[in-house]
Amino acid sequence: MKKWNMIIDVAECTNCQLCTLATMDEYVGNDWPGYTKPMPKHGHKWINILQKERGQVPMIDIAYVPTLCNHCDDAPCMEKAGDAIKSTPAVESNRVYFGCDDQKVYAVDVNTHNLIWSFPTGGWVRASVAPSGQTVYAASVDQKLYALDAATGIKKWEFAAGSGDPCRA
Prior knowledge:
single chain, mainly beta, Alpha-Beta Plaits, Lipocalin
């Protein structure tokens, strides 16, 4: 399968979101047989810009890192969840972690494509999950942030965000 690539100079990234807009302009509602299916208008984005803040007031440095969905030829995230994926998958330690509209967080082995675990939340998981060491963090539209054991998917703790408007994951 042929692939197109976008090159982004991360040293120049200012979080302007123009790369995201260019990708959406090219792929939302456009089917390119042999290359890609249309990108959904809402939910899953093929480019996610991460932000890292360092320092303290008055000397703060903010770095932005555009992360791209690599559109694997045989993507384990798509194989397990079908059309339900709206979050950007995150890969760490030969595992891909992602959330779905079926109200679950998944861990799939990158090499074998086998499901390692899934964890049920109380709502859609549309924000990117964040693996960090032995913990995977996931926010759900049920207004909770979950901390899950990266190896087993067992809940370590959860944080309820409040009773106001639902979190926009």
